[in-house]
Amino acid sequence: MDKDKKSTLEDLMKTEETDAVRADDKADAITLDEPKKKTWLVVLVTVIVLALLAAGGYVAWKSYQADKTLKAEEKIETPVTTDTKTTNTTTAPTEQIMYISATEGLNLRKEASSSAEVLAIIPFGTKLTVLETSGDWYKTTYDSKTGWVAKLFTSETDPLVYKNTTYGFQVTFPATWAYKFFPIAAENGVTAAYYVAVPTTDTTIDESSMGVDKGYQSLFAVSVYTPSQWDVVQAAEGPKPTLATQNASYVVGYSMPNGIPGSDLAARVAEAKSVIATIKFY
User: Fold this and answer.
1) Are residues 167 and 146 in the same domain?
2) Domain boundary among 105, 120, 153
3) pLDDT digits (tens, 9 = 90+) for 42-78
């Protein structure tokens, strides 16, 4: 064989061998890379699975917490509401009432001043509504006139109802009676006694010796007895009081006067018996 051909054949064989080696090397490289790829794939799959498990666990934990909270809430008692409707109610202001306590009557003035014009004279015992307050004055309406009256001569309680807090009896008077009770000195056989008097313009009347203010005349007397005292008085000779009312502790009697009433008291005398009829224990 020719030397050059031989050389060419050797070179070709070397080249083939080299290519074969390179091919083997590639095959080896491929063979070596396959485990690595599988390992990374396993790792990736594992991470994904763990992530899914973690997510599922979180959801399950939140579900457990929600269920636990719901059960706890179910144990809380819910207040029972009988009416869920809202009612709008308006409370009217309390009306303030007063009474005229001046026995001679009280001036209704145009302004809250003692020097203001007098609009009317309000009789003793008149019941009025307070419209406004200013210092020592009340604003009110009487006989279709609105003006002011002095607080000093008014009362929160009806002055036409006399209440004896010591013995517990009361007497109701008409508005025309500007009455006063004058105590009588206690005598044997009586616990207490009073003259019931009203004003008079008759200057000939003077009962000051009886303890009655000048300008007043007594229209009847009221006496208080214990039951035993009453029995004694009723059994005695002479004028006797008339029974008005009684309870277990006391007896209330009355007596009419012998004097001549003042010239201006005829109407009061006629009303006396109806006043006496109101005597009672309260």
Assistant:
1) no
2) 153
3) 666 666 656 555 555 555 544 555 454 444 434 434 4
